[in-house]
């Protein structure tokens, strides 16, 4: 453990951010899985789930949790899968 007060505070802040980022990344993955599975099954709710997944990706990108190119790639693949059916 570090000895200075500022480095201790930075470590505490980094841990809070890490936990928050992990939560957001996990929720994005959950939305992606739901959207992909409903698109594969050809469900009526596939469009709505895809919209929800894209919204969560956009929020994560705007917060800087995932890179903008990765967000664009995920959205592109999701739309491609939705339009395939």
Distance between the termini: 54 Å
Uncertain segments are none
SS elements, strand count: 0
Strand content: under 5%
Give me the CATH architecture, please.
Up-down Bundle
> What would you report as the Rg, rounded to the nearest angstrom?
17 Å
Number of domains: 1
Number of helices: 3
Element-level helix/strand string: HHH
Structural class: mainly alpha
CATH superfamily: Ribosomal protein S20
Can you lay out the helices and strands and say which pair or pack?
Blueprint: H1 5-41, H2 46-62, H3 68-84
Helix pairs in contact: 1-2, 2-3
Brief overview:
The chain is mainly alpha-helical and 85 residues long.
What features would you describe in this structure?
With 85 residues, the protein is an all-alpha fold. The protein has one domain (5-84): Methane Monooxygenase Hydroxylase, Chain G, domain 1 (Up-down Bundle), CATH 1.20.58. It has three helices and no strands. The chain has helices spanning 5-41, 46-62, 68-84. α1 runs antiparallel to α2 and α2 (46-62) packs antiparallel against α3 (68-84). It is elongated and about 60 Å long. The mean pLDDT is 94.
Can you give keywords for this protein?
mainly alpha; elongated; 3 helices; single chain; Methane Monooxygenase Hydroxylase, Chain G, domain 1; 85 residues; 0% strand
């Amino acid at each position: 453990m570090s000895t200075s007060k500022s480095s201790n505070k930075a470590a505490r802040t980094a841990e809070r951010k890490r936990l928050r980022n992990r939560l957001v990344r996990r929720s994005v993955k959950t939305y992606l899985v739901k959207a992909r599975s409903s698109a594969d099954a050809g469900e009526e709710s596939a469009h709505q789930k895809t919209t929800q997944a894209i919204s969560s990706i956009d929020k994560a990108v705007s917060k800087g949790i995932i890179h903008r190119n990765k967000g664009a790639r995920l959205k592109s693949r999701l739309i491609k899968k939705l339009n395939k059916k």
